[in-house]
Amino acid sequence: MTNTAATARPRSGPAIPSSQGLLPGVLLRILLFALLIAAGLLGIRLWLETAGMMDARSGLPRPLYGWGIWVLRSGVVFSVVLLALTSIRARRALERLPADFGSTPIAWRYLAAHVAAMGAVAALSFHVYGSRSTGLDFALLVGVWLMVCAAAVALAARAILPTGLWSILLHASKSIWGYAALGGLAATPLALVCLSLWNPLTRLTFHAVRALLQLFFPRVIAIPGEMLLGTPTFQVTIYPQCSGLEGMALMLLFGIIWLGFFRSDYRFPQAFLLIPCGIVLVWLVNVVRIAALILIGTAGAPQVAVGGFHSEAGWIAFTAVALGFFTSSRRLPWFAVRAAPAESNPVAAYLVPFLLILAAGMIARAASSGSWEWLYPLRFVCAAAALWTYRRQYRQLDWRCGWAAPVVGGLVFLMWIGLDVLMPHPAGSGFASALAAEPPWPRAAWLVIRTLAAVTTVPIAEELAFRGFLLRRVVSADFESVRFRDCGYTALLISSLLFGILHGDRWVAATLAGIAYVSLVRRGRIGDAVVAHATTNALLATCVLALGRWDLW
Amino acid sequence: MVMPWHLEEVLVNRIVVVVFCVIAAAQLALAQRADRAVPEINASSSATAISLISGALLVFRGRRKK
Question: I need a labelling partner for A45 at 20 to 30 A (CA). Which of A352, A398, A409, B42 fits?
């Protein structure tokens, strides 16, 4: 049986290639090209560094080596700007191109030639950096070396896209290449400016935190020479990485992305003022974060202060400020145009339960001392509340399951344990002792809720997010009209890999588990995937409770 | 079969590029001073935060589309 929504627009298969499919195809090829070149250069550099050949060389190769890391950084900025601007500015021009351009296969012969050329570059690099000569023969060697480098880049470009498409691409987006080049060139001096900001910003943060603490404590310990700050019972050192500079850089990027996403909702140019406001706000919140850390430490929970709070509060602060500030800004008439009220939000029903689990998890880890999350029940409550809120929207999904679901869930459990034997993870010894230190009733209640979450809210929320939404969203923006069986290998790999990455150290096992659950859901019933996932989690919970394998949680 | 270069337009334009931008910027910022990177902030908490932000953006976009 297929789900009701899927039957709304039957498909015989993905409607590709179309002109809509061309642009992302081209962009992905350019990304692949950039990755290919970067991987080759990094490989050669690492090889030469391992061989200890980078110190003695003089002449042109020496600065070329010194600039290498900056060239790489500039290349990253160039690629990001090019991809972002092309996706916005040159989209229409590219969509007018013949549809079959996007599906042109990779030219494997040229790719093989590129690999051979990179081998030649590596061999020549060995001679260039190994030679002690400085005469004409060395200049010729360097000349040949540079030409082979250029040939390797050209061969990679030809392998990834046909020459004709490169020509059309350059013509259609010529100004964008200029902007991207400017961005790439500006990256180095801007990065150097950023480096010079570390120390002054650290001092500014130090004084701001001290001023804030003086509002609460009659006596504040402040030694500017050592950047030591705190109260008589608890002090911290303000290092440069505590200055908030990285958060400010991320806020800058987030602001640009947000305004790009929702550009039709804002009034420009005044909307650009939101970005510096956001940057200042995130720095102020960082000051509050450090003051809060000292307050927590002084209040008698130094382990929480330097443990979970120290690790998580930065990301919590950034996420809350970024989303809160820019969401609120849409309600300010001077910045934003009045948007029509939303009728419904199909994405929210699939993602909000999982996002609330993530958010509650961050809060729970921040409130912990690092060994165990006493606030874990917050995850269960948040997810359960979201699932209850959206319960009517889930009726369109097929929640039935067959016998294969628990079988697959059991097999995934065996795979999980097997991989854990092959690739053991450090056992959380602090977890068991911290839990054992709790009184019996809170401990039992925590274990019940933890197990309940593992077999109910977690599988439902994760399957809705990764299989119900992401798997189908890869195929089409109108994801509810996509039948599970029409999700191809790309969708399978993307959704499973992201599912795996979010499981941290056990990402290999989780990715394989994701693939197994996708194989079930492709039969058309999300209930199969949920039951399989719940079975796996139930068996893991049994292992944890029966054998004391706390590391599996 | 859907191949990587057949991915739906909006996905690449609005999601993947954004996620890559955030990751690239975070890595660039941290790479500037690898010796000063905060040791307590691990890849897992970064991945969680980036997922949360990306997911929230998708939800906002979903509300807007209707």
Answer: B42
